[in-house]
Give the backbone structure.
Amino acid sequence: MTDAGRRQNTLPYLGFCYHSAFAKRGVLLPTRILSGSAIRDQIYAELSSEISALASAGIRPGLAAVLVGDNPASKVYVNSKIAACEKLGLASIQVAPPATITTSQLLAIVDDLNRRDDVDGILVQLPLPSHVDTKKILEAVDPAKDVDGFHPLNVGHLVAGRPTLVPCTPAGVMELLRRSTIPLDGANAVVVGRSDIVGKPMALLLMHANATVTVCHSKTRDLPATVRRADLVIAAMGRPAMITADYIRPGATVIDVGINRVTDPSQAENFFANFPERLAEFRAKSTALVGDVHPDVAGIAGALTPVPGGVGPLTIAMLLSNTVKASRLRRGLRTPTAVAVQR
Ligand code: GUN
C-alpha cells in the first residue's frame, strides 16, 4: 500500500493509524491516538465523586473567571471553563470588565475575589490588553486561589518540586502521559516552546518525572535534528503544523499542545492533503483547527494526541481539579487518597 493509501485507510480519531517505523521492513505498527477527551471523562468521574463528598459537608467549590475585553478566542476558552464548572456542579462567577480597564481597577477586582469566601479559585484569562501590567495582576492573585499556577510563589514551589497548584495545560499533559503509561524515566523529552504558561512548567514537570529534558525555542540551532533525538516531543510554540513528519523519530510519542484556527484554503490543502475527510470538512466550513504538529506525523509517531480532542480537554479538567484542590486546602482538608489525579 502507498503512504497516501495507508493514511487514507486510517482512523486517527477512533484510536489508531499506522506509522512507518517498520514500514520499510514490511511491518506496519499502529500509531496510538491518545484521546484527551477519554481521559478528561475519567478525571471528571473522579472529580464528581469528590465534589459530591464536599457537597455532603456543605462545601461547593467556586471558580471566578476574569475575562477582560472581547478577544474572541479568550471568550471561547472562558465560556468552556464556565460550562465545565456547571457540568460538574462547581459554582462559577464570571467578571468581564471592558478592554479599557486600568491596572489599578483590575487589581481592585482581583482583591475583591481574593476576599470572597465563596471563591476558591481565580483565573485571569490571558492575554490581557497591552496597557495592563500582567505581572502585577498575576502577583496580586492570592497564591492559595491561584488555580492557574502562575503566581511566583507557586512557580517557585514547582521549581523546588514541592506540592503546589500546577499550571493546567502541563498538568494535563502529565495526566495524559501517566494514564497512557508512556514511560518517562530516562526518556529524552524535547519541549518546543518556552512560554511561562506551557513550555517552562512542562519542562520542570518532565524533569521531576526523571526525563532528560531539552527546551527548544525560536533561536534553537537545527531544530529538526534536535527534535528527532526525542522519545517524547511536546509541541507548544503556537505555530500551525510546524512540526512536520521529518522532525519525528519513528515511534516517538508526540504531544500536540497547539490549537490554531486555519482559514487559508492553501494552508488547509497542505495540512490535510492526506486526510480527505478533514479537507472536505474544511471546504464545507471554511475553517478548521490544527495543532502545532502537522497531521502527517500520524504516519510516523508511535503515539500522538489529536487536535481537537487531545490536550485541550485536559487543560479544563485540570483547572477544575485545581479548583477542588484549592477549596480543600483552604479549608484545611486533606487530599483524598482515593483520587487518582496526582496532586
Ligand atoms: N491563556 C492561554 N492559556 C491560558 C491559561 O491556561 N490560563 C489563563 N488564565 N489564560 C490563558
User: Anything to note?
Assistant: The CA atoms of residues 216 and 222 lie 10 Å apart. The two ends are 46 Å apart (CA to CA).
